[in-house]
Design a protein that fits this description.
It is built from seven helices and five strands. By secondary structure, it is mostly helical. The strands form two sheets. A three-stranded antiparallel sheet has the order 2-1-3, with no helix packed on it. Strands 4-5 form a two-stranded antiparallel sheet. The relative contact order is 0.17.
Length: about 150
């Protein structure tokens, strides 16, 4: 249902497939769990800054500063925000604010997190889970972690 690269560089995101497909060894695939039926919401949450932070944290820098992700490591350690904690209005708002992001090219991470549509989406996700207070620390930590990984390329 969803995929990500095992070695993203500047652009870190989870893509949604239009239909279930086979993927090669350069991609990591995710299958929606049986008890979850809102793939669009899960897709949005997996692309939130918190999830991107976890992807960056679970990987390690490889040659030229690309992020090396391991499918087994992601299977055992990657977590997303629990969509069951959201009310229907929050679910709708998150999906609505994620839609404009889907309609454009994803920018390199340090540009992406400052895009106006991304900021609105991230604020809604954090607000919906009552964790708005972590916004600046999350952004600063993600930025710093990314810069450290990319510094090997200089």
């Amino acid at each position: 249902d969803l995929i990500t690269s095992i070695s993203p560089d500047e652009r870190i995101f989870i893509a949604k497939l239009s239909k279930s497909s086979l993927v090669n060894q350069r991609l990591i695939s995710f299958k929606l769990m049986k008890d979850e039926n809102d793939l669009d919401l899960i897709h949005a949450l997996m692309n939130s800054m918190l999830s991107v932070f976890l992807l960056e944290a679970l990987g390690f820098g490889r040659g030229l500063g690309v992020l090396d992700l391991n499918a087994t490591n992601l299977k055992n350690k990657f977590k997303i925000l629990n969509s069951k904690l959201l009310n229907n209005e929050d679910k709708k708002q998150i999906k609505n604010l994620f839609n404009p992001i889907l309609k454009r090219e994803i920018k390199p991470l340090l540009e992406e997190i400052d895009m106006p549509d991304r900021i609105k989406f991230e604020e809604q996700v954090l607000k919906s889970f009552s964790i708005s207070n972590i916004k600046e620390d999350l952004k600063n930590s993600l930025t710093k972690m990314h810069q450290i990984r990319k510094s090997v390329n200089k």
